[in-house]
Amino acid sequence: MEKRALYLRKNNKQHKFSGFTLIECLLALLVLSIICLLFSASIKNAVVVTSRLKNEREKEWQIFIIQLESEVKSCHYEKTQSNKIILTNTKNNKKVWIEHKLGKIVKVENGGYQPLLTEVKQAIFKEKGKYVMIEVTFENDVYAAAKWIITGDHKHE
């Protein structure tokens, strides 16, 4: 677009002023408003994605608890350490433990391990009387906790 000049006469002197036309100003406002709309839409989308990820972590936690109960069904409870639960398999009398290792909670048995929960920042196992408290913080700072009750079936006599 061609720049237009505005000439003013004052005391018989000419001054030249450069400026934007009305169409150029309207076009700039249109571009600015589109950028603002896209920015606000991306912020709203980020909030939705964050809440869905949190819900996904809660589902993974519930599945982990169910799977943990299934995995230790044929085991007797021995003891708890800060990062692991030690059990004994009733079928072959070998040690089995559930531990936090390399960002995962895994079941270790016969030299191999099976991941039960991934993307774990911190996991703490605490024995408190008749139950074991499992506290997990995921990498996205979602916190989850559960109590695993030690019944007569699980307790090593």
TrEMBL record:
Compartment(s) where it occurs, according to its Swiss-Prot or TrEMBL record: Cell surface
Transmembrane segments: 21-43
Cited InterPro entries: ComGF, N_methyl_site
Transmembrane in keyword set: yes
Any one GO BP annotation for this protein: establishment of competence for transformation
A GO CC annotation given for this chain: cell surface
Cited Pfam families: ComGF (PF15980), N_methyl (PF07963)
Keywords tagged on the record: Competence, Membrane, Transmembrane, Transmembrane helix
Descriptive protein name: N-terminal cleavage protein
Lineage of origin: Bacteria, Bacillati, Bacillota, Bacilli, Lactobacillales
